[in-house]
From TrEMBL:
GO biological process, one term: vacuolar transport
Subcellular location: Cytoplasmic vesicle; Early endosome; Late endosome
Keywords (A to Z) from UniProt: Cytoplasmic vesicle, Endosome
Chief place where the protein resides: cytoplasm
Organism listed in the record: Hyalella azteca (Amphipod)
Cellular component annotations (GO), alphabetically ordered: early endosome; late endosome
Gene designation: LOC108679758
Protein name (database record): Spermatogenesis-defective protein 39 homolog isoform X2
Alphabetized InterPro entries for the sequence: Spe-39 (IPR040057), Vps16_C_sf (IPR038132)
Translocase listed as a keyword: no
Amino acid sequence: MASSREQEDYWGESDTAPAALDNFFDENSTVSWRGASESGDYLVDWSKRVKPTKTVPAVQGTVVSPDISSTSYVSPDVSCNLSDSILDNITTDNLSSSSISEAQPRGVGRSLGSLGEKLQDWKPPSVKKWSHAGVVERCSGCSALEQQVAQLSNQLQASFSRSHVAVPVAAAVHAMCTGQPYALHCYRSLSDKRELLAAALRASHTSTIIAVLVFCRNTLSRQLFLQELQSSAVAAQSYLGYLKQRRQYREAMELLQDLGRHEEAALLRYRQCLAITDHAKKTAALRTLTSSSLSSPALTHYKTLINDQIDLLERQKSIDEEDSKSSSNALFKEYPRASSVYDKPLLTTLYYCAMYHWTNSGSHCAPAAFRSAYRLTERQFLWAVVRGRARVKHYFLPEQLPTLLTTRTGGMLGSLSGALSAVSSSLAGAPRPSLPLDRLLDALHAASAPHAVLAAYLSLVEPRELRLRLAQHYDVRSAVVEALVALKDKAGLQRYMEQLPPGSAEYVKADAALKTGRWK
């Protein structure tokens, strides 16, 4: 069955509607066609059956004459009035002769009965052009559709104007900053693009600057685009940030090289090498970096550091493989490894080796080997070793620190005074200690170091007021008594004695100081 749209298109045409009525005739029905002439009414009887597929063209002024052989004829006096409804001129052979002779020229077809009902059933409900009276009516939704067409036409014209007419640069930048629609392809000349970029930079709006820079990159040659970036550091930095945010690192490195910022380009490539997790690929990428991006003499220092890192990665890989298979070291059972040592910082690796490989002298995992291979300072070496040994309950006193700086080949690298200067300043006003005693005391206290060890390091703290506060914080009673005696605070010592258990070593020491000491 035809769709509603197809019916409306079909029946809406006035020139096809009358001819289509032949499709509704019953195949077994005989119809009569009543016409009109100047002499009067007459009835033409068609005994020929009307085929559903036969279409009788309706032409203005057709003359019908009788034909005896075909039981239909054409009379020269008959004319068809097509202005009337086709239903007015059709009747069935079921009508009696009397009713036919008495019928009027018009209105006869309205008594068709089932045929009329069939036509009404087939008429689409949305069709307005075809009516019984033959009057063409206007569609009720046409006005709304025309309004929509006019509105869309106006919008299209406005959009065309915005897209193809260059507005002032200030207006375009304002639209970009406020989130309004804008178009940049209208600015074709180099001067317009420079003016647009300058206006975006004056607005100090990052998104607008990036949008203009991307437009310039897509429409200018690379040489001209680089000239614009070289003329404005803000534009260059904004565009580099845009590339890094989109992870277009290769383009960012090429841009840095073109701008002459080789150090930043090498640093960016170095960060990309660090992101590699595979050991072989990482070391290969670092070696490529040292041979290509760090070939400049100004970057020799960085090249040395990266070569040291490659060597450290190789050493860490070897240590990690050996320790993961080792079952003879009892320290691994008593102090299980928290994680792999691979790809850890240098001081963390030294801390690890001070814990588990302190006795492996001469091997690649010995702490002394790290100090000589990577040129560690006394402060760096002592800080990692003292904390690492304290983790396994092996504590060094300050006077033992010089032995930590001894190697088999170089002899004594530090004296007692040098070691002490690494952890404190002398009473004679020596320089500030290179080793932070407050942090070292925190590490020793966290490792449950005995009070005697803490007191030994507290005795090196200056000034004395700080020594007293630290001794009270870590609850080292002997150090508190010594600090109060050094400060000659008799009243404070007497108050502190009230907190000490009578007969304890600290109580006896404080009492002796009160009796023999020289006070203010």
